[in-house]
Amino acid sequence: MGSNNLGQLGTGTKQRSASPVKVRFSKEVHKISLGQHSAAIVGPGELYVWGSGIFGEFLIPQLFMKQVSDLNVGGSFGACLDQNGSVWSWGSNNNGELGTGDFEPRKTPARVSGLENKIIREVVCGGTFTVALGENVTLKAPSETSRKRSLWESPDVSIDQSRVEALEMQLREKEFEIADLKDQLQREREINYEMGSIQNFEHQSKQIQQYSEELVRKNQELQELSSANTELKQELQEHYLVNSQLKQEIQQLNDRISDLQERFQEDLNYHESLEAALQELNTYKKNQEYLNCELLALKREKEQLTKSLNSYKALNQELSEEVKTYAEDKEHLTRSLQLKLEDLNSPRCLMSPKVSTVKPLQRSSLNNYLSQIRERLSNLHESKAQLEQKVETYKRKLHTS
């Protein structure tokens, strides 16, 4: 219950409460300590922390450390003892209250190395200091019987009953004096404690004065930093404007580069299409040259065939004339032979000896002449067949081209 401006009630909000509110834990709570933040040992040594501090702001308990046996919270710091006897501390450290050898705050528990190898039983935190309690050491005073035994057993003391009683009386007087001295010492300790408190108050007053002066200096520095921050904000605003202008120019340049890239791509595509067309044109030219060569060869072959055909026609003309002459000669010879045969078959020529010799001669010459004519005709037919075959081949080539 109470104020909750730092979340120290652990209810999940900062709403204060005039009546006790329950901090929910699923395990048994063994110890709790309160300050600007709160802490508790729950279950098997689990340390939970809630509230506000250098570690942040926890509106509900958060697990801070494990295997803890004791804890205590001061103003804005805390300390705990783990199950191995080591001391840990966390929080603000303006006065060295964490015992870490410096004045740096700790967001998480830090081991106090100066208490290593010490037997620590309990830790207690004040406003700006921490106390660690070690193991108890008891000094036993000698008893009356042991004191008497030592006196009787001493070789230097004579056994005198009256003297023993006198010594016992002196011993009792000394004990009373010791008791009075202890009372005086206790009173002096109380007075010194009060004087120490006054001196501590004066020391704290001086510290407060120093803190006030330092606060004034910090305020002046803060004002200077505020003015510098204002100037930096103005410069930052100017840089922001310049940056905006540069971004716009960069955007314009990027757009221009994009346009140039598109144009370059178009030119590159056009150039590639031109190269492809040029390659096609070169291929067409090569094909045209090849076709021109083929056409020239065909023209030459045509000329040869034309010449051959003309020669064939002339030869055919000659053969026709020769055949005609041969037919005329044949007809003439046939008539002559008929006439001669008629003459030979006449009765007056049958008895002449010259007829038998002439007749075989005329027949053999006639047969030779006829065989020559047949041979020339067969050669002419072969030449004609070859010329016709060449003409047909030439026509096919012209048709395919």
Structure commentary:
The chain has 401 residues and is an alpha+beta fold. It is built from 4 helices and 10 strands, in the order ββββββββββαααα. The chain has helices at residues 144-153, 161-344, 347-350, 354-400; strands at residues 29-34, 37-42, 46-53, 56-65, 68-73, 77-82, 87-91, 106-111, 120-125, 130-134. Strands 1-2-3-4 form a 4-stranded antiparallel beta sheet, with no helix packed on it. A 4-stranded antiparallel beta sheet has the order 5-6-7-8, with no helix packed on it. It has a two-stranded antiparallel ribbon with strand order 9-10. The two termini are 114 Å apart.
What's the helix and strand layout?
Elements: E1 29-34, E2 37-42, E3 46-53, E4 56-65, E5 68-73, E6 77-82, E7 87-91, E8 106-111, E9 120-125, E10 130-134, H1 144-153, H2 161-344, H3 347-350, H4 354-400
Antiparallel strand pairs: 1-2, 2-3, 3-4, 5-6, 6-7, 7-8, 9-10
Helix pairs in contact: 2-4
Offer a concise description of the structure.
The protein is α+β, with helices and mostly antiparallel strands and 401 residues long.
User: Which structural class best describes the helix and strand composition?
Assistant: alpha+beta
Biggest sheet record: 4 strands, antiparallel
Overall mean pLDDT: 77
Number of strands: 10
**Secondary structure: helix percent:** 55-70%
Strand content: 15-25%
**How many whole angstroms does the radius of gyration measure?**
72 Å
Number of helices: 4
The strand order across the widest sheet is 1-2-3-4
Run of helices and strands: EEEEEEEEEEHHHH
Q: In angstroms, what separates the terminal alpha carbons? A: 114 Å
What shape does the CA trace take?
rod-shaped
